[in-house]
């Protein structure tokens, strides 16, 4: 699909079928980094087909000096640590947006460890020139860094830590954002025989070698969230998300419990997770997104158009993702008469002024002039708004954007009856 835009709708609102999810890009990218750092043979099964993963796999072993991480945050941050600490001289850049996403906290930590890194444009942002690594610590390296901007800096350092001459001790300062992603990193390290101690705000990793072995990447829970939203919007839904398991390394698996409040039930079957629409949403609820930032857009759009008053906290990191997700949501939700209002720093209230009760598609205030969704180079904008096609025909700009995490998204929508055409 290489259209400027697509229009989509669902003729019946009744959804039954089996759906394929992508494999987790977060797990895939950690596993790929561990594989590159291990001297033993590591076999990875079910790697994600997300562009973020395909890209990392290629760039880890690319002979070129100039490396382009495109719009992939984990790729940019993981490779910065990897090239620095394995002493590979590289120039690391990305899209225009990537060059506006901060990386100073990670670069500072790497410099303290002994990496020579220069900023090629703006201080604190890509592009970077990575020159050399001369360890500055004779014993265990100790670094303090802020934990409230991006957990990807912490994961990047942890993944490379076992290869440092005498291990690493990280002391996290401030709030720890996206904590489940740090836990996922440590779990993946453990999977390959590397132990770490995470107590309070201190994480310690001794010098160790990654063991060989095999690992199968789980299905992606962040991607699953759009299907939950689809189930909530449907008149009737029974959707089987193939391969999705309850006991997951991914923090975003919390979507299963949270979506009960929006009337979607999950039943774990041997084949995957069965989503069933059982009720209409609660009228008012609150969710803290500090641990689950990638779910924020899913819930904001769902609450907004289902007339749920939703208090969203822990949104501090949303302005430095693929786009300023707060601004993007505010602009697009206004089209539905919904305000996303800041009530204190990092906290927002979703409130629908149009009194729509979510009862049916004809009565929805979404009028033809308002049904064009802009996506701002952000895959999650496209996927979070797509379920609105169950209410009325909508247009989504730049459908290709989903390739970052879920290239087959539109194909899977078609399988359960969505009608999609290029515009
Ligand atoms: O480590 C990871 O795989 C990720 C961590 C999170 O980023 P932050 O730690 O920057 O919030 C998340 O938003 C991103 O999609 C993936
Ligand atoms: C924020 C995301 O990705 P990244 O930070 O890795 O670009 C995301 O996938 O929503």
UniProtKB/TrEMBL annotation:
Highest classification ranks of the organism: Bacteria, Pseudomonadati, Bacteroidota, Cytophagia, Cytophagales
Cited HAMAP family: EPSP_synth (MF_00210)
Pathway membership, UniProt: Metabolic intermediate biosynthesis; chorismate biosynthesis; chorismate from D-erythrose 4-phosphate and phosphoenolpyruvate: step 6/7
PROSITE patterns: EPSP_SYNTHASE_2
GO cellular component: cytoplasm
UniProt binding sites for 3-phosphoshikimate: 25-26, 30, 150-152, 178, 294, 321
Family under the similarity heading: Belongs to the EPSP synthase family.
InterPro entries: Enolpyruvate_Tfrase_dom, Enolpyruvate_Tfrase_sf, EPSP_synthase, EPSP_synthase_CS, RNA3'P_cycl/enolpyr_Trfase_a/b
Compartments, as annotated in UniProt: Cytoplasm
Subunit structure: Monomer.
Gene name of this polypeptide: aroA
Organism: Adhaeribacter soli
Residues reported in the UniProt entry to bind phosphoenolpyruvate: 25, 73, 101, 152, 325, 380, 404
Record's catalysed reaction(s): 3-phosphoshikimate + phosphoenolpyruvate = 5-O-(1-carboxyvinyl)-3-phosphoshikimate + phosphate
Active site positions: 294
E.C. number: 2.5.1.19
Name the UniProt record assigns to this protein: 3-phosphoshikimate 1-carboxyvinyltransferase
Location, primary (coarse class): cytoplasm
Free-text function comment from the UniProt entry: Catalyzes the transfer of the enolpyruvyl moiety of phosphoenolpyruvate (PEP) to the 5-hydroxyl of shikimate-3-phosphate (S3P) to produce enolpyruvyl shikimate-3-phosphate and inorganic phosphate.
Domain Enolpyruvate transferase: 60-413
BP terms from Gene Ontology: amino acid biosynthetic process; aromatic amino acid family biosynthetic process; chorismate biosynthetic process
Gene Ontology molecular function terms on file: 3-phosphoshikimate 1-carboxyvinyltransferase activity
Keyword terms: Amino-acid biosynthesis, Aromatic amino acid biosynthesis, Cytoplasm, Transferase
